[in-house]
Structures are given as structure tokens and as C-alpha cells.
Fold this sequence. Notes:
It is globular and about 40 Å long. The strands form 2 sheets. Strands 5-4-6-7-3-8-9 form a 7-stranded mixed beta sheet, sandwiched between helices. Strands 1-2 form a two-stranded antiparallel sheet. It has 8 helices and 9 strands. The model is unreliable at 147-156, 173-178 and 180-198 (pLDDT under 50). Helix content is 44%, strand content 18%. The chain has 198 residues and is of the alpha/beta class. The chain has one domain (14-196): Rossmann fold (3-Layer(aba) Sandwich), CATH 3.40.50.300. A hairpin with a 5-residue loop joins strand 1 and strand 2 (9-10).
Amino acid sequence: MQxxxxxxxxxxxxxxxxxxxxxxxxxxxxxxVEGVALSGIYCATAEARDAEMAERIAAHRARRGxxxxxxxxxxxxxxxxxxxxxxxRPVLVDCLTLWLSNLLxxxxxxxxxxxALCGALRAAPGPVVLVSNEVGMGLVPETPLDDGSRSLSTNxxxxxxxxxxxxxxxxxxxxxxxxxxSPMAACAARLLRIFCRH
Length: 198
């Protein structure tokens, strides 16, 4: 977070939160926003495709409380960011990985989606916090869809472009949570470019 003189802390224009499955990245992102604003917009990209996901979605909603206004954005994420971002009302996107999977399932081109997302992030008038799985560092997926999603997430140059739109990045870990900042997302870009080389 940034602070101007003695003023209150504020979020960078775009923050990228990377973490493994069940690493606490969503709660960490929520706390970032709750620490600097009076309310926030929660862009939820998950769809309840099975009982386990429905249970997880319900638990997330119950945890968030009245601070958040939730918008379901399984596909139209760039439009939601453009419509809802405001200087005093940060937008939290949870998460980019599920959004990519939704695009694939709907037959959309993920590269076009990434380009639209970058445009929305650059034009957003208020802070945006993006949550994404740190894919490529865990198990090899079992299904063609999951493997395709993993490959696109780790290898597509457009996902490096998405990182280049970010002003800060964080990796919540079990024992430590850190937020690093640098102009025009140098930190976030480095994180994703590590994967995009492979």
C-alpha cells in the first residue's frame, strides 16, 4: 500500500495477488481492500458447477459481510471493472484463473479476453486487486481442459501483458505475506515472465 505524506494508506492502481490453492490469497486480498476503504466491489468469477464449488462459494459469501457488494462475473470481467471501479471503492477480482477456465468452456478466445482485461485495467479510475492461482508450480492436471488452462495461464504472452498492467504484487504464504511495489508493475511482470519463458 502507498501513503502520501501523513495521509491514510491507499492501494496502488492494480495489485496482483498470486498464490497456490487454499493458500489464503483471497482473504489476504480482502484484507488489503478492507484496510483502506469503506466499501468494495467483489467480482466473483466462480460458477457452482458441482457441490464442492457451491459450498466454497457459499462460505466465501458468508465471510465477506456487508462491506462488499458482490457481482457475478464469470465472463464479462472487463466490462464489470470498467463499470464499477471508483477512486474510493476498490474492485477485487477473485479469481483470474477461474475466469480463464470460464472463457475456455464458453468457447471464447482467452488471448482476446486478456487483451480486453488489460484495457479495462489501464482505464480503471479506481484501484483493482486481482487474485490468481500460481499455476505451473503444483500437480499436473488430469483433464485436457485443466491442462489447457494451465498451459495458457503459464505460457501466453498476454498473461505477461496482464502482469505489466499491475503496480504491485504479493504472494501469500503459510508463514509470511509480503506486498512488493514498483513502478508500472515491474515486480508483477517479473513474477509471470518467469513462467512465460517455459
